[in-house]
Amino acid sequence: MANLKLHEFIGENREELIRRCQVKVVTRIAIEEATGATGATGATGATRTQSDHGVPLFLDQLVDALRHGPSNTNEISKGAMKHGHDLLLHGFTVSQVVHDYGDVCQSVTDLAMETSAPIATDDFRTLNRCLDDAIAGAVTEYSRAQQVTRDGQSNEMRNLINAAITAFEVIQTGTVGVGGTTGALVERSLIGIRAIVDRAVAEVAQPVPGKANPKLVTPN
């Protein structure tokens, strides 16, 4: 049997894939609310956050990437950044942001197996690459927006640490590889943390006129 193009499979099953993703979100939120593990706005909020920048947009962008190649991954990242921001505003955690995109991969894989659809391996590689770009974009924006909304100020160090930890946790799940966009997010975050530490060390080492150098002060 000839392989079925993934963009055709998604086009034919778009509404069913969206429905499956929404069911996964609602089910996950119900479990987390029952255990007191989330402050999200329940099923209504979950459905609303999908409407503009979530799974429907990602599926459309994925179809475009499958048809025309990787040139549109920047649009995927930008759409995911908006989605990450939306989910933060609705009280979702960053792990729920990551799960949102993992649901797409799981729903596509499950439906393909249920219908015995022979999807080409290269198309699944494209799916994983696009998921990588989306997850990295969503995590980056979520972390940034989270710090901006906290007391109206941005805590650069905490922002970078949160982004690095979350991105690394995504890599540990096996959803994306270390060599992709999410792996690059970990590297950029660590480099940014090092730069902040270097600045702090330089400021401490810089003598302040009229004040003792902190490095030279010793307790009595």
Overall description:
It is built from 8 helices and no strands. With 220 residues, it is mainly alpha-helical. The radius of gyration is 21 Å and the shape is globular.
Please give the structural blueprint.
Layout: H1 6-34, H2 42-53, H3 55-68, H4 73-89, H5 94-114, H6 121-149, H7 156-173, H8 181-205
Helix pairs in contact: 1-2, 1-3, 1-5, 2-3, 2-4, 3-4, 3-6, 4-6, 5-6, 6-7, 6-8, 7-8
What kind of assembly state do the chains in view correspond to? single chain
Secondary-structure element pattern, one letter each: HHHHHHHH
Q: Identify low-pLDDT runs.
A: 40-44, 214-220
Helix proportion: over 70%
| β-strand number | 0
- Helix count, per DSSP? 8
> Biggest β-sheet, characterized?
none
Structural class: mainly alpha
Strand content: under 5%
Kindly report the average pLDDT value: 77
Radius of gyration: 21 Å
Distance between the ends? 83 Å
Bulk shape: globular
Feature tags:
220 residues, mainly alpha, globular, disordered C terminus
